[in-house]
From TrEMBL:
UniProt-listed InterPro entries: MFS, MFS_dom, MFS_trans_sf
Gene Ontology cellular component list: membrane
Organism per entry: Aulographum hederae CBS 113979
Transmembrane segments: 51-69, 89-111, 118-137, 143-166, 178-199, 211-236, 285-310, 322-340, 352-371, 377-397, 409-429, 441-463
Primary location class: membrane
Gene3D superfamilies on file: MFS general substrate transporter like domains (1.20.1250.20)
SUPFAM superfamilies, sorted: MFS general substrate transporter
Subcellular location: Membrane
Basic and acidic residues composition bias: residue spans: 1-16
Region (Disordered): 1-25
Domain of life of the source: Eukaryota
Membrane topology: Multi-pass membrane protein
Protein name: MFS general substrate transporter
Length: 484
């Protein structure tokens, strides 16, 4: 008897059928539990409050700390460290991603061994200390070296969070949870420009420049959030030690049983390097990673250069260019919220990604070529909203279509690793010599948007073929061919 005959077939991607026919999360009617519907919802909401809020806050400081170069740059760092010479600024932005990529693959293995509280709490506190140190640098080379160390530490954060979230929820709950997670980080960090403008007013205090205070105070904030992670962050639901202890044994069993009923991988097998790496044999893993690469190329380009574009290209002053970063990210937060709910309700992922990329394709030419600064700023809204909304959508796209704990761990690491490569690309697409129009960078972002639409179409064809094989009994639930 094949694996497909032993258990429910695992179909990939989406259907247009709503999951509202099921009490909680779209599980089949055959799922049985001792808890009433109201009790089930209370348990899930308790997980949401404890898990989503904490990782969201930690992700908030993570985004602020990796992208605050742009606000510090226009606040005087460019002149003090000579970052306008050659490619110095681009070098400082991209060296972070070299170590960020290299040190990501082992992260999802380490977090399983140490647990999220110890692993994520420790690296957050340490990189907060590095941020404080950035406030005292006297040369661009020292700043670049600290950015290398920052990449080593932050490499362990995002893939571990993506993996941790995927272990607590069933497939058609993940979209809105990833959106909440990213909204907290993205929208909060959007106001980093306003925060930086306020910190700039500390110029000269204790003989320290205003841009230095940006790093120092944000580093202190990161350390506080990291310490909170030691106390409040939860572990994995199947962790026998249960150091997080906010659910009792019956409630924990409910969480594990519903994940098993949905995709059958709530329990983790002992780590095996061969099994971990074998996840790379699935073409879908790399196509998901390419979608994430294209998306992060755009989002990082905006994060690193938007204040500079607003100042040089659209003619706003320093204060305006820092503060005007926030409204487009606020729109992105609203769109993330809406798309997260729509995606889970109608079980749609690919079409939402295409829609967001179309927003970018419309907005980018407006930013690059319209004669009015106000209209170009409107284009920034479209690009920022479309690109950033696709971050949680891309994460959900892969999480819904990958089965098996270690394959999911490998896919999370690969996805975020390619996101790091996107960070390198994003730090280079808007070149100094292209100022103030930056047309070459605009074209690069348009190309990334178009490629994502093509990749979603390619994946849709793969999904249809594999689903036909599952229905015919020729494909196992783990994606391997059935031996006859």
């Amino acid at each position: 008897m094949s694996d497909v005959e032993k258990s429910e077939a695992f179909h990939v991607e989406e259907s247009s059928k709503s999951g509202s026919d099921s009490p909680v999360g779209g599980l089949k009617d055959g799922f049985e539990t001792e808890f009433t519907l109201a009790e089930q919802k209370k348990i899930i909401h308790r997980v949401d409050r404890r898990l989503i809020i904490m990782v969201g806050l930690m992700y908030c400081v993570s985004l602020i700390d990796r992208t605050n170069l742009s606000v510090a740059n226009v606040a005087g760092m460019k002149l003090d460290l000579g970052l306008g010479i050659g490619y110095r600024y681009s070098i400082i932005t991209l060296v972070f991603f070299i170590t960020y990529i290299v040190f990501q693959p082992p992260s999802t293995v380490i977090v399983r061994r140490l647990g999220p509280r110890i692993h994520l709490g420790t690296i957050t506190v340490v990189w907060g200390g590095i941020m404080i140190g950035m406030g005292f640098v006297k040369s661009w080379q020292t700043l670049a070296g600290l950015r290398v160390l920052l990449g080593v530490l932050e490499a362990g954060f995002f893939p571990s969070c993506v993996y941790l979230l995927s272990t607590w929820y069933i497939r058609y709950e993940t979209g809105v949870r990833y959106s909440y997670f990213y909204i907290i980080g993205c929208v909060s960090s959007a106001f980093a420009g306003i925060l930086a403008y306020g910190l700039m007013q500390m110029e000269g205090l204790a003989g320290i420049r205003g841009w230095s205070w940006i790093f120092i105070m944000e580093g202190i904030l990161t350390c506080i959030i990291g310490i909170s992670g030691f106390i409040l962050l939860v572990g994995f639901p199947d962790d026998a030690k249960r150091s997080w202890r906010f659910l009792n044994d019956r409630e924990t069993k409910f969480i594990i049983d519903r994940v098993n009923a949905d995709r059958g991988d709530a329990h983790t097998e002992p780590f095996n390097l061969k099994k971990f790496i074998s996840g790379g044999n699935d073409l879908k893993v790399w196509l998901f990673a390419l979608i994430y690469f294209n998306t992060t190329t755009i989002t990082y380009a905006l994060a690193f250069f938007l204040p500079i574009i607003l100042q040089e290209g659209l003619g706003f002053d320093v204060g305006e260019s820092q503060c005007l970063v926030a409204p487009p990210y606020a729109l992105a937060g609203l769109l993330m919220f809406a798309m997260g709910h729509l995606g889970d309700k109608f079980r749609l992922r690919g079409p939402i990604i295409v829609f967001n990329m179309l927003l970018c394709i419309i907005g980018l030419p407006i930013v690059g070529w319209h004669s009015s600064a106000a209209v170009r700023y409107f284009g920034v809204f479209l690009v920022t909203a479309g690109a950033n909304t696709n971050i949680p959508q891309a994460m959900t796209y892969q999480a819904n279509n990958i089965r098996g704990q270690w394959k999911r761990a490998f896919c999370s690491a690969t996805l975020v690793g390619f996101g790091g490569i996107g960070g390198i690309a994003g730090s280079l697409v808007f070149r100094t010599q292209d100022s103030p129009e930056y047309h070459n960078g605009i074209w690069a972002c348009i190309a990334c948007s178009l490629l994502n639409i093509i990749l979603v179409g390619w994946l849709s064809l793969i999904f249809k073929r594999e689903n036909r094989k599952v229905d015919a009994g020729r494909l196992n639930v783990d994606g391997s061919e059935v031996s006859i």
